[in-house]
Amino acid sequence: MESLSGYVDEFRASANQYLSKYEPVVLLVFPILSLVLALFLQSLLGVINDKGLKPTLLGFFISFFKLVPGVQNYIDGEKQKVVDKLQSSGKSKRDGWASELPKAGLGFGVTDKLKDEKANDVAWQGKCSGTVYIGGTESEGHFSLINEACAMFAHTNPLHLDVFQSVVRFESEVVAMTAALLGSKETCSGGQICGNMTSGGTESILMAVKSSRDYMKARKGITRPEMIIPVSAHSAYDKAAQYFNIKLWRVPVNKEFQADSRAIKRFINKNTILIVGSAPGFPHGIIDPIEELGELASKFGTCLHVDLCLGGFVLPFARKLGYPIPPFDFSVKGVTSISADVHKYGLAPKGTSVVLYRNHEIRKCQFVAVTEWTGGLYVSPTIAGSRPGGLIAGAWAALMSLGMEGYLEHTRDIMEASKRLQKGLKEISELYIIGRPDMTVVAFGSHNLDIFEVNDIMSSKGWHLNALQRPNSIHICITLQHVPVIDGFLKDLRDSVQTVKENPGPVSGGLAPIYGAAGKMPDRGMVGDLLVDFMDSSC
Asked: Where would one find coiled-coil regions in this protein (predicted)?
């Protein structure tokens, strides 16, 4: 002990002698500055880890540039011009909108007001990419049937299990029928496929991500969750990452515009909770290699979600019809969850989707149970507490009215329409098809024309298509509405290509310059700000 005490005294004397050369204020400030610098470096490294070196440096440069007097005001002014352009007529569309209750109610006369407002909607029949999946007109056939079903159960709410038992049964049967289409009857599925209905594909994906996060936390103790998606995966995963505090890795697709399993493998680490595949992906209609992703998920013990929001009610029937469809459902080992929209090709009312899980252990992580609320014990399966029973009844009516034969017939119609469209596109030399579409979404671009200018001309002809980026392209999602108008679409497209070819340059009132500029803008944060400003002024 005396020896140790001597060493301590010797060290103290040596340290005091060395530090005596410095002013006391320096000795006080230096540790504080060192701590601040360390915290700054830690924060900087965190940002670089999240965003990458190049985007981080660019972000710092632009932030400093905005500090120059007048620059921020100029940028805000230019952003507002773009927002007004995106809205076509600025904020004038909101003129005359109600901002308070009428003094005297309109009574049943409100239906006339509804009809008047509806008449102002654009002509969508057969002209919109996706959007409306049911064929025919609103006043007859399948439209009329699901409208009646929705109206019959408009007052119901499955939150009240003991009251609206019919709707509870409808939901269970919709889930079971959807699961049967996606592999629940296969022995390799494990026999426990289960799920719930949600308000749409985004909520289904949110629920799958949340469940995967909590399941992997319970199973592996992961507290800093990460998920890996191909760049073609739906933007709902970005929402999930923000809502649930999950680090998101975007991985480039391969030359066929499919998820690159080898690239995804390089991003898997001890914090990975989920990898993602789509069947097909929204941008280009191409099915990812689900079997390869399943092998990765099984090997590394992580969850795998398959986005079948578009394909859930097409691919099972297309496979039965003999189309070359690769494996995509719970028959693939490693798939832990699936989302499938009933309100798309299931031909159900808008606001109906299904999220499925391989077993109840995973699904339980979706639920929220509250035990300490003074309002009583509470448990809810999805994000919403109260849910519209009318939509559930409408979805049940759609599935039961069409049956296997009805869906097979409709699938044949839209798959053949897709083949006709692709054949016609190949005959337009100025255009090329992105990848090899597996289903009914067909994307196309051009090597020598501004495809967004082509889109503007098509818009002037009444078509509403989706503009894509990386590469610049547009796509159409074929529905039953398009089956009788494929030839008309191709004629308008040929004419639009010819117009741009003969008169290249922005179309008056068109959005091509904005799309083009946004795609080239290095500061993606500024593009995000533009979108937020647009949304803020639109709703």
From this structure: none
